[in-house]
Amino acid sequence: MPLHYDVYGSGEPLVLLHGFAGAGSDWASLAAEWAADFRVIAPDLRGHGRSVNPLSTFRHDEAAGDIVALLDGMGVGTFKGVGVSGGGNVLLHIATRYPERVKALVLISATTHFPEQARTIMRSYSIDLLPEIEREKMRQRHPGGAPQIDRLFAQARAFADSYDDLNFTTQDLARITARTLIVQGDSDPFYPLGISEEMAAAIPHAELWIVRGGGHGPIGGERRPEFVRRAGEFLRQV
């Protein structure tokens, strides 16, 4: 399935995957900063932004297959990846299924499974819960307008009853050979810190960065400079 994507710079491939209901354009300013060292590839996941989804549902494992097919079509073999929330979950599928292709991972607010506290939020997830400034960002990201946005929120609500898409075991995680930096806010309303701690213990070459006072996706605002520096240093390591 074709995906829309943007490319910045040249060099070693670096794939940036946005969170659910986001778009590849969310990474534009960060991609421009890292383009001096990497060939940055920022796709829109299926059904997001300018990418289509032939199904009414969204599964992270299917989105992972899309990304692998995209990279194959671009002639990209091994790569480094950064994913936030849903994008991080997609990278987990790729890194466990194709460990030889992934050299380094930065996983921000990713999870091995949906805990009950996340499912509770998902069951009532709606654009009406967002402030107007965030609604406008949604409209700008998604040219399909209200029908596209409504479908995404319906898919997010369906996550509350999904158990097989995200169900990574310690044995699954042990297959990951990439150096992995796990970034987790200690005040994330979706995922308790224990999930990231267990993930860091199970992935062979992982380290955990706990963002004190950080919520879900704690890499923006005043925290952005530290993330750009620390993640950039991690990704540039040989």
Please provide a written account of the structure:
The chain is of the alpha/beta class and 238 residues long. The protein contains nine helices and seven strands, in the order ββαβαβαβααααβαβα. α8 links the parallel β6 and β7. The protein is globular and about 45 Å long. The model has no long low-confidence stretch (mean pLDDT 96).
Features:
Rossmann fold; 238 residues; 39% helix; globular
| Uncertain regions spanning at least 5 consecutive residues | none
Q: How many domain modules?
A: 1
Mean pLDDT: 96
**Which fold does the CATH topology refer to?**
Rossmann fold
Integer-rounded radius of gyration: 16 Å
Q: In this structure, how is the largest beta sheet organized?
A: 7 strands, mixed
CATH H-level homologous superfamily name: Alpha/Beta hydrolase fold, catalytic domain
Structural class: alpha/beta
Q: Biggest sheet, strands in spatial order? A: 1-3-2-4-5-6-7
What spatial form do the alpha-carbon principal axes imply?
globular
CATH class category name: Alpha Beta
CATH structural architecture: 3-Layer(aba) Sandwich
Strand residue percentage? 15-25%
Give the helices and strands as they follow along the chain: EEHEHEHEHHHHEHEH
Number of continuous helical runs: 9
Based on DSSP secondary structure assignment, what is the total number of beta strands?
A: 7
Q: Span from first to last CA? A: 33 Å
